[in-house]
Amino acid sequence: MPEEIFPLIDESGRVTGQATRSECHSGSKVLHPVVHLHVFNSQENLLLQKRAMNKDIQPGKWDTSVGGHVNYGESVEDALYREVREELGMENFIPKFLQSCVFESDVEKELVYSYKTVYDGLFKFEKKEIDQIRFWSIPEIKNNLGKSVFTPNFENEFRGFL
User: Fold this and answer.
1) Number of folded domains in the chain?
2) Could you tell me if 131 and 60 are in contact, meaning their C-beta atoms sit under 8 angstroms apart?
3) Which residue segment(s) compose the domain that 57 sits in?
4) pLDDT (tens digit, 9 = 90+) per residue, 109-144?
5) Which end of the chain is more exposed for a tag (fewer CB within 10 A), N or C?
6) Does residue 162 form part of some domain?
């Protein structure tokens, strides 16, 4: 299977080049785009996914409802809908754009396009990338911040605007 190719971008989101997934996650800190969808239910609880142990970054940590890379040649919106279908099997949802921000870790630098939606339907996910999903109350999330339960990226977003 060929390695995924991601667009390289500037902080305004303009494409400046391309690189493989491994190049983007090698510590090179080349900026590449990702999409996140925060799924709330009508009781205002937030769905989180527990990352599978075979993930190359932050295995076994709780993370945003949906998160994934934008592929080279793909729009941010197309990537969002693709990732939501792949990860949770959701088809009928209305995303609301929250913000974009740069997140940098030891191994990568991403421009994160964050969205949210309210959804009370069914989810369908494969155990390949996600170990489990569940809704968390906002107080429950706040009580677990800084305890290595969540990914740093999720904590950054939660503290910043959720």
Assistant:
1) 1
2) yes
3) 5-157
4) 999 999 999 999 999 987 788 999 999 999 999 999
5) N
6) no
